Amino acid sequence: MPTGVHLRDVRQQLFHAAERVLLRGGPNALTSRAVTTEADVAKGVLHRHFADFDDFLAELVRDRIARLTDQSALLRAAAGTRTVAENLTGALTELFDPVSVALTSLLFFRDELRTRLHHRGRGLPLLVEAREMLATYLSAEREQGRIAVDADVDSLALSLIGAAHLLFAGRDRTTLPDIEELTKLVHTITADAIQRRLL
Questions:
Q1: In principle, which of 55, 108, 119, 161 could form an S-S bond with 50, CB 3.0–4.6 Å?
Q2: Rounded to an integer, what distance in angstroms lies between the CA atom of residue 108 and that of residue 99?
Q3: Could you confirm whether domain 1-49 is CATH 1.10.10?
Q4: Helix H or strand E segment including 158
C-alpha cells in the first residue's frame, strides 16, 4: 500500500475517533489517550503522524475548515434558488453540527491551538471561515437583486454567525435547536436587507 494512502487513512481514522470522543464527552474528554483508545490503535500511532497532540488538534480543525470550502461552493451555487432565508437556515444547520460546536468551544479555551492555526487577531477559527462563507453567499444574492444593493454583507454574516452560535452552543451535544427558532432568527437578521431590495 502506498505510504500516502496509508497516512491519509490513519489520519482520518484518528480524526473520526476524535469527533466521536467530542460528541460523547465534549472538549474536556479529548485527550490523546481517549482518541487512540477510541480509534483502537496504540498511543504511539498518533505521535508517529503528528508532532504532538496540539498538532493533531490543529490538523483536526484544518480538516473541518477544508470541509467548509465545499459547503461554501454549494451555498454560493444556491444563490438565486429557494429563498435567502431557506438557504441561510440550511447552511447554518449544517455549519453548526455538534462536532463543530464542540471544536469551537475547544478553540475558545486553547490559545496555543489558535496560535498554531495562525488566527491570532482574526477571530476564532472555523467561525472566521464560516463568516466568509456567508458573506460570499450574501454578495451573490446582492448581485442578483435578492437583497438590498447597499446591504452590508459582512455585518449580516457576522450577525448570523454570532446569533446562530449562541443558539446552537450550550445545548446537549446530541440535540439541535428547533428549526422554527433558527428560521425566525435568520428572518429577523435579514428582514431589512431583503425588504429594502424593492425600494
A1: 55
A2: 14
A3: yes
A4: helix 153-168
- The C-alpha torsion from 68 through 74 and 80 to 83, rounded to 10°, is -70
pLDDT of residue 172: 72
Phi first, then psi, for residue 52 (nearest 5°) are -160, -175
Q: How far apart are CA 177 and CA 97, in angstroms?
A: 11
pTM of the model: 0.87
Helix, strand, coil percentages for the chain (3-state, nearest 5):
75, 0, 25
Using DSSP's 3-state secondary structure scheme, residue 170 falls into coil
In terms of CATH architecture, what is 54-198? Answer: Orthogonal Bundle (1.10)
Domain ranges, ordered by start, for the chain: 1-49, 54-198
75: left (phi over 0), alpha (psi -120 to 50) or beta: alpha
pLDDT, position 3: 41
Mean pLDDT of 116-141: 88
